[in-house]
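Quick one: structure tokens for this chain, please?
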Amino acid sequence: MNKKILIIDDEKMNILALAHFLKPQYDIIVSTESVTAFETAEKHLPDIILLDIIMPELDGYGVIAKLKASENTKNIPVIFISGLNSPEDEEKGVLLGAVDFITKPFNKMLVKARIDTQSLLLDYKHKNEKYENALLTADR
């Protein structure tokens, strides 16, 4: 079963470009409005979120703050993909809970590599949780 990636970006061309090279390996969910992105994440519970920062109404920093405040979405890895490229922007994203920060225009191989890394980390995390549960069960 493919992992699910939620792309949150108000620019449809960015979504199309990302979905084009990610779709064979991942199931893609899209939100073009930052104000509904949180509800989309809660509904679909994606494995990874790609999040733009500069969006109307609520910026990506506001979206990630909502995601990290929710029990249901707080552990979903968020990767910022943004036209912002200052060290301060990247630092702010990481401090809010992002696992990575990619600048636009993005290199598709770099994006894919970073997503694949997060995917592997999720696999290891889930395997570790299974082993921990098995050990706890065996101790009883």
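The mean pLDDT is 94.
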